[in-house]
Here is the input.
Amino acid sequence: MTLKPYTASQAAEEVAGALVSTRSSEGTAFITTPVTYPSGAHSLVRIDGMNDRWFVSDDGYGAQEADMMGASTTFKRVARIVADRAGIGFDQKFLFVVETTRDELPGAVVAVANASAEAVRRTAMRVEEMHYATSRALFDQRVETTFRGSTIIKQPEVLGESGRAWEFSAGIEREGNIIYLLDLVRPRPSAVYATVSKFTDMKPVLQGRKGAAILTDYDKTDPHLVSLLSKVVGVALPAAAPETVWREQLAATA
Amino acid sequence: MRADIERAILDRVQEFAQADKIWGGGLAWRDGPTHRSNACLELVAPILIGGAARSGFQARLNARSDMPQCDVHAQLELWCPEIERYLHFERAEWRPNRPHTNPQTAPAGLRGKLLQDRHHPFRLNRRLGISALLQTVTLIGEPMPPGLETFTQFADFLTTVWGIDASQLPAPKWQERLI
Here is the structure.
């Protein structure tokens, strides 16, 4: 017995059937398209109407994909631009929508599927532009974890050798004395200079070390200024560094 | 340093994914965000580990009131202070309206696979890095076991893969009118 060959024509039909499907009820139909969102989910287009008047929309699935990314605000901004360029509407309910005739229906379905996917793709690109820029909250959490059991003073004012009082982001206190200082440093050169000035005016307090400069955004800080900070302060590390790195680097006091 | 930070974040997500969990309340469906379709329903519930809420850990489920017994999306979410965003993982889609196509980077047997009911486990998606947790790359999914005909059965599946008693999840408030 010989097996019937599986032909290119059959394969093409099977692939087309898998990639495009339809479902309908009471004046509404859904068309699954081969267009995909960044997550891999396929774009679905909804059509409502009869005879020569049709409404075509993505039924809010583009907005749902953005919601699942936690990026609704970005999506709202981006989607309007994409809709304008595609010549279709984008309504208050975050739906891509177009009104069309029977003749123009296939083109409208393609336009809506593409626009919805394109808007989510652009949203994803914005989301990907993440920085390990960190908040004061992360700094506080890392300090708490690293110096657990010690007394942590937030924003202490410490008198420098020059007689000027400097404010740091945090200090570690033992037996009534601040023995270690931490300063949260933003990438701006002026912020780096301020931290360099503060630590230059401090005496080494523990094993020749003064403290640590904690960088809010390591990638955006000039590498030469990071080097300068480490020279003056003792150690410079990103706030987003893992807790293990914080403990290793600040081991002298932690 | 970037690689170290990313590894630490992925390790943390794995720890949360694998931990035994209990609900922290809030197991009720409500209307979805105002910007979404009127049919959008949402359930967001905090999750406790070791009796404590940590790092904004929560579950998010989405459904449509006009589509009973289908199109339910569920995922776990964890706040990541390093990038000041929620990370999303263990996404599952039950009887979705839309299929999913796996990327060519998926392991053999799953590569390029077109899936309907699907689960995107962290163990398969960790290789994609933080992008998978932001859902900005094509996720790797595997089919759910067959025979999940009701929301209750889907919840039982979540109990297995999430490590939490999902039988406590109420079914969405579906309307009588069907699309």
